[in-house]
């Protein structure tokens, strides 16, 4: 009896612990999904899933369109035959023939223009659907969720349009989450690197000297201010001087305070952020104008700016290499420039989010200073 | 502006006494304050787009010449191919339909590939003059600063590209400021409206007193509003542009999400020329539609953020309570078991 009960109890606790483990695992999994690595994987997985969806939806339409073009051409050939036949029965006048042929060709041109607008790419082979290859569909899904929207390829079927709307509505918040998360992490790590390396926080001698210099400068400024104030206005001194005076009683105290400030409180100047952005755009432009034969440096940097600001006109798109025609699947996936382009976009957006994150405080501080200056100039006493 | 004001004020100081200077200062202050209100910001954004439109028109109109060269080229292609067709007709004059159609098919295929190549280089069927009319340029400027970027009309000269980059650099922060501000204002209006409706529809009971200070608009209201706006836009754009309903819904959704795929753009219809009178008004109306719609999106974003924040807080509280509850229950369970066990011993 006793043993039985103990066994049951043990089993019960075992089951409970198993349940708990499961729950714990689930919780950890969800936490991981919303952590930094998880969200990158989530965005990548979402994009890959989207590219497969769009490939299956849009792939068929392409072939239908090509068949239509071919059919139209045979119809026009038949018409031309009819014209020739008609004119041949009468007298063969060159002007008349030319006029009717010109009319027909004009019609045909209009038709071809229309087909091209609808996505005809000018090749005749029915086997390959070049635009909606895996690479193309992947870039399409990426441009939808990042709201770049190049528009060089777009869905033509009604199902594709509905899928795009739904895909965007779910994908955009996900991408925003990615941006805020990754931007935050990158900002923190960049601040750390900046503080450790650029300001030489890691070697104490330099930091000490820097802190000393800063304190000295502050003191001088304060003395200047005091003398200025005493020169101009006597009543103000009695108010402002006592709280300002004993703030740093000794130099060493101030030094320790200065050295103890958290790395995360080190302000990164706006110019550094701007330099990072400009440098990122320029390096991207250099790489792209190496990759694409016809692009000048100007074109490539224009492309990078338009992409990273999510405007995305789509007049310049890294094209010929990415939308490879009719090669096998894996060669396309592993195409270096396609991978590079998508990584460039994802990383660049996170970088811009980071820069905004870093600049925010500084810019707010600057604006406040400006407002104060303007107020002082306008002498607003309200 | 500030320097102008200072110059003004110094001049007035010289001419008269203190009074006018203070007045000018006041005036300046009120103007600056007004500029940062919603209406002022809207006017600022509107003015910025108008200035941009005029600038881009002047920058890009020399391109019309370039476009006409493409037109000439396509005409020459047509002429050459028709001559070739004539030759084919002369050669195959023996009523052999099969051979004739094969030869003609070849000629037509080469012509087709030429046309496709020209289109890829930027030839537009309808743009026989300048595509950069004023409303089109206005639409272009709006699409740049709102980051929609349709891409149906793009700068082709180097200066145009540089100008676009600079224009975007200044325009985007301005637009974002406007977006945040208008979102706030519209959210306030909508909340007030919703509260009024809510109070009218429900019985005025004692609950109304402490509900009064803060009513949270449910997100379903925002969703319904957005869907209504989308459908209204779709219903207006559909018949105009001869799009079917799904296409116009797709256009409105992708525009308001700022994706801007650019396969459907109002006024860029292939069949009608872009310079006709009706298209201009359509462009202006679509400009207003998108301008206002983005403000609505900002409003919904604002309201939904509030509501979702509240919901998350509630859910967290619920979760905490639930955890506490289960903890207490588990503890009770343990105690009971232990009691039973001890009894056994």
Briefly, what is this?
Chain A is mainly alpha-helical. Chain A has twelve helices and no strands.
What report would you give on this structure?
The complex is a heterodimer of chains A (382) and B (345). With 382 residues, chain A is mostly helical. Chain A has three domains: 151 residues, Helix Hairpins, CATH 1.10.287; 61 residues; 109 residues, Orthogonal Bundle (Helix Hairpins), CATH 1.10.287. In chain A, 77% of the residues lie in helices and 0% in strands. Chain A is built from twelve helices and no strands. In chain A, helix 2 crosses helix 4 and helix 9 crosses helix 10. Chain B has three domains: 35 residues; 135 residues, Orthogonal Bundle (Helix Hairpins); 116 residues, Helix Hairpins (Orthogonal Bundle). Chain B is flat. The longest helix of chain B is centred in the last third of the chain and has 68 residues. Chain B is built from eleven helices and no strands. Chain B has 345 residues and is an all-alpha fold.
Protein traits:
heterodimer; A: mainly alpha; Helix Hairpins; 3 domains; 12 helices; 77% helix; B: 345 residues; mainly alpha; 11 helices; disordered N terminus
Quick one: biggest sheet of chain B? none
The tally of helices of chain A reads 12
Q: Return the average pLDDT of chain A rounded to an integer.
A: 76
CATH topology assignment of the largest domain in chain A: Helix Hairpins
CATH architecture of the largest domain in chain B: Orthogonal Bundle
Number of domains of chain A: 3
Q: Name the helix and strand elements of chain B from N-terminus to C-terminus, one letter apiece.
A: HHHHHHHHHHH
Helix/strand structural class of chain B: mainly alpha
Name of the CATH first level of the largest domain in chain A: Mainly Alpha
What is the count of structural domains of chain B?
Answer: 3
CATH fold topology of the largest domain in chain B: Helix Hairpins
Parts with pLDDT < 50 across at least 5 consecutive residues of chain A? 232-248, 322-327
Domain Potassium channel (chain A): 129-187, 276-362
GO molecular function (chain A): outward rectifier potassium channel activity; potassium ion leak channel activity
Subcellular location (chain A): Membrane
GO biological process, one term (chain A): stabilization of membrane potential
């Amino acid at each position: 009896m006793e043993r039985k009960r103990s066994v049951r109890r043990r089993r019960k606790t075992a089951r409970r612990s198993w349940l708990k483990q499961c729950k714990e695992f689930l919780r950890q999994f969800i936490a991981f999904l919303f952590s930094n690595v998880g969200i990158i994987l989530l965005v990548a997985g979402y994009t890959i899933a989207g590219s497969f969806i769009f490939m299956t939806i849009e792939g068929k339409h392409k072939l239908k369109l090509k068949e239509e073009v071919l059919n139209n051409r045979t119809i026009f050939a038949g018409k031309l035959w009819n014209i020739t036949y008609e004119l041949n029965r009468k007298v063969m006048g060159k002007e008349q023939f030319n006029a009717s042929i010109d009319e027909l060709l004009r019609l045909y041109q209009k038709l071809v223009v229309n087909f091209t607008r609808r996505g005809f790419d000018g090749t005749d082979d029915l086997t390959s659907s070049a635009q909606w290859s895996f690479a193309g569909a992947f870039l399409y899904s990426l441009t939808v969720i990042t709201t770049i929207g190049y528009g060089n390829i777009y869905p033509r079927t009604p199902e594709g349009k509905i899928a795009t709307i739904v895909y965007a509505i779910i994908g955009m918040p996900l991408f925003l989450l990615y941006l805020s998360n990754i931007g935050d992490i990158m900002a923190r790590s960049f601040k750390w690197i900046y503080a450790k390396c650029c300001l030489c926080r890691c070697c104490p001698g330099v930091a000490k000297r820097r802190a000393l210099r800063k304190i000295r400068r502050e003191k001088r400024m304060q003395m200047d201010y005091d003398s200025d104030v005493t020169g101009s206005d006597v009543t103000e001194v009695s108010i402002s001087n006592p709280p300002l005076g004993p703030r740093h009683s000794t130099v060493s105290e101030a030094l320790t305070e200065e050295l103890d400030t958290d790395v995360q409180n080190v302000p990164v100047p706006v110019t550094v952020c701007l330099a990072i952005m400009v440098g990122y755009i320029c390096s991207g432009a250099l790489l792209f104008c190496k990759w694409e034969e016809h692009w000048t440096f100007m074109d490539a940097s224009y492309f990078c700016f338009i992409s990273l600001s999510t405007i995305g006109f789509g007049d310049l798109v890294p094209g010929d290499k990415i939308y490879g025609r009719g090669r096998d699947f894996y060669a396309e996936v592993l195409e270096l420039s396609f991978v590079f382009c998508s990584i460039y976009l994802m990383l660049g957006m996170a970088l811009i989010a980071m820069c905004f994150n870093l600049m925010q405080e500084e810019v707010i501080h600057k604006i406040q200073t400006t407002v104060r200056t303007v107020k002082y100039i306008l002498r607003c006493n309200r | 502006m500030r320097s102008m004001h200072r110059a003004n004020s110094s001049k007035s100081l010289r001419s008269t006494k203190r009074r006018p200077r203070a007045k000018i200062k006041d005036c300046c202050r009120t103007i600056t304050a007004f500029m940062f209100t919603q209406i002022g910001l809207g006017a600022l954004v509107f003015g910025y787009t108008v200035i941009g439109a005029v600038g881009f028109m002047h920058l890009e109109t020399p391109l019309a010449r370039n476009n006409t060269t493409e037109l000439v080229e396509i005409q020459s292609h047509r002429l050459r191919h028709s001559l070739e067709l004539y030759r084919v007709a002369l050669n195959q004059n023996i009523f052999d339909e099969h051979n004739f159609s094969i030869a003609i098919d070849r000629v037509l295929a080469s012509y087709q590939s030429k046309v496709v190549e020209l289109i890829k280089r930027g030839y537009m069927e309808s743009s026989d003059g300048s595509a950069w009319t004023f409303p089109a340029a206005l639409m272009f400027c709006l699409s740049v600063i709102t980051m929609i970027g349709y891409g149906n009309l793009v700068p082709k000269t180097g200066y145009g590209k540089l100008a676009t980059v600079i224009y975007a650099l200044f325009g985007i922060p301005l637009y974002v400021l406007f977006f945040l501000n208008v979102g706030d204002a519209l959210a306030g209006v909508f909340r007030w409206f919703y509260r009024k409706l809510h109070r009218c529809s429900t019985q005025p009971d004692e609950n109304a007193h402490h509900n009064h200070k803060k009513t949270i608009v449910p997100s379903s209201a925002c969703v319904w509003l957005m869907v209504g706006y989308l459908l209204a836009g779709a219903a207006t754009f559909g018949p105009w542009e001869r799009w079917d309903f799904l296409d116009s819904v797709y256009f409105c959704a992708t525009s308001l999400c700022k994706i801007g795929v650019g396969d459907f753009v109002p006024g860029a219809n292939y069949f009608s020329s872009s310079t006709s009178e009706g298209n201009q008004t359509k462009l202006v109306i679509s400009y207003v539609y998108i301008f206002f719609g983005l403000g609505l999106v900002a409003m919904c974003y604002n309201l939904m953020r509030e509501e979702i924040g509240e919901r998350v807080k509630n859910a967290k509280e619920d979760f905490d309570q639930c955890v506490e509850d289960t903890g207490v229950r588990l503890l009770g369970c343990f105690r009971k078991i232990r009691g039973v066990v001890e009894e056994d011993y």
